[in-house]
């Protein structure tokens, strides 16, 4: 055991590489397991803590349960076999053994960003029962600015005072599918800490695994704001793209053609318009800032949320119009929704636009079917659609998720199978001209 508080960043890096440092990672999910495996792969002794026994057992068997993460199978197996990565459900024992405790459990929020922080507080309680002088506690889970410091009274139940132990926030700046790449150096790590000694040690901790290095922030709160602001930037810019796309539709202009041309100018970064913004990050983080605003009006951030939330309805309206052009009423038409997950390649349904699209299509009286390469019949039924793996008798195809499989759809084959040739593209994955040549009535967000 080695206490990192008070050590230089160089000595910290050395100690981790030499296997002298034990790091406990709380939460072995999509973010926690890659982080735990990467630290172990760089020499640390890692104890992964999770309340889910199945997760703990599988990790201890050298198995990776986050299948969407390339390279994680090998990394988990290799480091479990080498004895550097172990898992447990005992968060107190892990805290007793560890020098550094990293909190990466879910911070679930409702649609208005009201957080359920129970799991974070639960972990902090457990850590407080094993906390020792010189330990460092780091939050990586995304939280509204101020949340990490709200853990101080819980951690001080240990009998120690902040300063005896260090506290820091180092936001996870990645997403499922690219976690290992991002953790190891796609972007620098952001770090804010309770004091200079903690900051120095935490810089050393993350320099060990991140080739791009560390950006030290002036405070924990500022570090928390970085991750939240990144998400808000995306939300507001997607809303701008969506608003301009709607304007283009009204004026018979192709938004994608215009955006591509405009983006050749280095100051312009117009995003992709689409069926809406889902997931537990981008649509939620704006609420962290809105809910904490006192005098600031935050009307741009609010409006962006409204615009993005209205996009699934717009996709349904495009479907109504397309069916209309084909001489079909929505009532009784068979609609096949392609995609249930909120984005391509990831099985995650939080705030997925597909949920709203299916609900609204049903309200119009349509017979709604769904298919998603990552999902099952039960998933479709959960959201009120029937499962369908072919295009037979379909009156309209509505693409809601940008799965790789939908980018290579054989429109010629589909044209021969459907009952009515209508395609609505909410993710710009289909070539409008190709669809039209095959006789489809095509509508897309922002497309002519
Ligand atoms: N998934 C992403 O793309 C992403 C990106 C950036 C940041 N984040 C943030 O990372 C954090 C973790 O997200 P995730 O996607 O890894 O979640 P996840 O749902 O994939 O995994 C969370 C894990 O934590 C475990 N857990 C829950 N409560 C616990 C407790 N009290 N003690 C110990 N373990 C507990 C669960 O059993 C689960 O295995 C969240 O705060 C999220 O905001 C996620």
UniProtKB/TrEMBL annotation:
Q: Which SMART domains match?
A: UDPG_MGDP_dh_C
A Gene Ontology molecular function term for this protein is: UDP-N-acetyl-D-mannosamine dehydrogenase activity
Q: Which GO terms describe its biological process?
A: polysaccharide biosynthetic process
Q: Identify the residues that the record assigns to the UDP-glucose/GDP-mannose dehydrogenase C-terminal domain, covering every copy.
A: 336-432
Enzyme Commission no = 1.1.1.336
Report whether Amino-acid biosynthesis shows up as a keyword of the record. Answer: no
Keyword Flavoprotein recorded: no
Extract the InterPro entries matched here. Answer: 6-PGluconate_DH-like_C_sf, NAD(P)-bd_dom_sf, UDP-Glc/GDP-Man, UDP-Glc/GDP-Man_DH_C, UDP-Glc/GDP-Man_DH_C_sf, UDP-Glc/GDP-Man_DH_dimer, UDP-Glc/GDP-Man_DH_N, UDP_ManNAc/GlcNAc_DH
What reaction is this protein's catalytic activity?
UDP-N-acetyl-alpha-D-mannosamine + 2 NAD(+) + H2O = UDP-N-acetyl-alpha-D-mannosaminouronate + 2 NADH + 3 H(+)
Q: Which UniProt keywords apply?
A: NAD, Oxidoreductase
Q: Which family does it belong to?
A: Belongs to the UDP-glucose/GDP-mannose dehydrogenase family.
Q: What is this protein called?
A: UDP-N-acetyl-D-mannosamine dehydrogenase
**What organism is the protein native to?**
Pyrococcus abyssi (strain GE5 / Orsay)
